[in-house]
Design a protein that fits this description.
This protein is α+β, with helices and mostly antiparallel strands. It contains 5 helices and 4 strands. Helix 2 packs across helix 3.
C-alpha cells in the first residue's frame, strides 16, 4: 500500500504527568519526541483536546509515506518516559490514508 498516511494517536494524560511542573513536562516531551522523530520521514503535530472531550486529553498526528518509519518512531516513543514511566495512556490509534478514495478510484476496475 502506498500513499500519504495520517495516524491519529489519542492520548490520555495520567496524574503522574499532570503533577509535574510545566517546565519539567516540556523537557520530557521535547527529549522524547526529538529522539523518536530522528530521520525526517515522519512529520509530527500535537493538539490539546482536554477542553473539548474527556476521552482523550491530547491528539498526536503522525504523517508519513513510510509506515516502517512511523512504526520505528512509535517504538522509540514506547522506550521513552512518555509511555514507559508512564505519563500517558494510548486511548486509540486511528490510521488513515490521505485521499485514499482517489487512489481507489484511479485503479482499473475488475469485473
Amino acid at each position: 500500500m502506498s500513499g500519504r498516511f495520517a495516524i491519529f494517536m489519542l492520548l490520555k494524560a495520567l496524574p503522574s504527568w499532570l503533577s509535574l511542573q510545566r517546565e519539567e513536562r516540556a523537557g520530557i516531551a521535547e527529549a522524547a519526541f526529538r529522539r523518536a522523530l530522528t530521520d525526517g520521514r515522519v512529520q509530527f503535530r500535537y493538539f490539546d483536546a482536554e477542553a473539548f472531550t474527556s476521552r482523550a486529553s491530547d491528539v498526536a498526528l503522525f504523517e508519513t509515506d513510510d509506515l516502517s518509519a512511523y512504526y520505528f518512531a512509535v517504538e522509540r516513543l514506547r522506550d521513552s518516559p512518555i509511555f514507559a514511566h508512564p505519563y500517558f495512556d494510548v486511548v486509540e490509534i486511528i490510521p488513515s490514508i490521505e485521499d485514499g478514495y482517489r487512489t481507489f478510484e484511479s485503479q482499473p476496475r475488475s469485473t
